[in-house]
Amino acid sequence: MSSESIGPVELLSTEESLILLESEQLGRLALSVHNLPEIFPVNYIVTDGKIVFRTAEGTKLLALTINAQVAFEVDSFTKGEAWSVVVKGTARAIESQQEIWEANKLPLTPWIPTLKYVFVEISLTEVTGRRFDIGPEPDRD
Q1: CATH number of the domain where residue 80 is located
Q2: What phi and psi values does residue 99 have, to the nearest 5 degrees?
Q3: Residue 122 in domain
Q4: For 133, which DSSP code?
Q5: Tens digits of residue pLDDT in 70-108
Q6: Domain range holding 113?
Q7: Three-class secondary structure assignment of 26-78
Q8: Between β-strands 50-55 and 81-93, what pairing exists: parallel, antiparallel or unpaired?
Q9: What's the rounded Cα separation, in Å, for the pair 76 and 89?
Q10: What digits encode the pLDDT tens for the residues 5-64?
Q11: How many domains does one find in the chain?
């Protein structure tokens, strides 16, 4: 499927959206904590068509074990354009020793000086993207 433009907004194909997703390292994980929406910034990598990030014990990990359905958003902008990719999927903590060994080989380290022993993998169920032309608002009159 190719892109489709609607005025200054271009709907991106799944393939284009995945390329943009893979081009970044920082995204936002959206999930439910105590029946309220929460958003957590995480650094991540895309491997084998899945998003992988590291975390420590705490709110984020607990929420993922209660409700594995998550959204993940990545965006970027320049002076002339911006884009946004939103992923919906299912998250799980990587628990098998073999998978942990494989995940430890990934070029994925915490950006802040904390220990994050748990790898989380998001299997993608839906990927959407948009590109936006940035410019002044049209006249309202």
Answers
A1: 2.30.110.10
A2: -65, -35
A3: yes
A4: E
A5: 999 999 998 888 999 999 999 999 999 999 999 999 999
A6: 4-133
A7: EEEEEEEECCEEEEEEEEEEEECCEEEEEECCCHHHHHHHHCCEEEEEEEEEC
A8: unpaired
A9: 21
A10: 677 899 999 999 999 999 999 999 999 888 889 999 999 999 999 999 999 888 888 888
A11: 1
